[in-house]
Amino acid sequence: MDGNDLSNLEKCLLQSEALHQYILETNVLPKEHELLKKLRAETKARIPKRALMNVPPEEGQLLSIILKVMNAKRTIEVGVFTGYSLLATALALPEDAKITAIDISRECYEIGLPFIKEAGVEHKIDFIESDAVPALDKLVHEVREDELFDFAFVDAEKSSYWEYHERLLKLVRVGGLICYDNTLWLGTVAHPPQQDVPEFINSVREAVLKFNEKIAADTRIELSQVCIGDGLTICRRVV
Question: Cα separations (Å) of 2 from 16, 71, 82, 199?
Fold first, then answer.
């Protein structure tokens, strides 16, 4: 199997595909913004082997509701890919909101940029092309106490999740949320390493297991791990 080909993998952990389709067709897809639909289709057409890296629409829907309930205005996204979660966030936030978006690849971000522009939300986004750790370190030194973020979404290098976490706890306000994607990693965290999958699946599994163990013991946060997509851990900063 091609190590970069994700097209034969399934992100949804629901055991019944019929149930997953019911959820999508009844609750998710009828409510999905047309430009989000178009962005999903464009990603699949342009880079089919990696299209699975996009946040699934049901998770985008959940993030949108969370942001609206929080009345969030300042958010940070670590890992953008083609921008599905970024566009979902920008659509959910008020006109004067600001999103700091960090990714190592502007090339991928530019696949989604026409849809972001068409939605009229580009002015909300400050895209930073960079490795996440140095970009976060820079923000830690620059952001004032009254400029702390309300919300952070992380979908980047899984082996660096804990490094991101330590920095985001300095950047997200007390009471704010930090959400980590892929924390059930295609369901592999509940089983021994598999032999019939690309090598990176098992190596990332180990990184996710270590992160899950550490974050569960972190007294600086409250958390809830949600079985949506292939796992979303929602953390609320308490100190």
Answer: 27, 43, 21, 10
| Chain position carrying tokens 């030194």 | 141
Residue the block writes with tokens 């992380």 = 154
Candidates 131, 133, 55, 63; CA nearest to 99 is 63
Residue-range domains of the chain with CATH: 17-237 (3.40.50.150)
Q: Residues 176-219: pLDDT tens digits?
A: 999 999 999 999 999 999 888 888 999 999 999 999 999 999 99
Amino acid at 36: L
pLDDT for the residue numbered 1 = 40
**Reported pTM:** 0.95
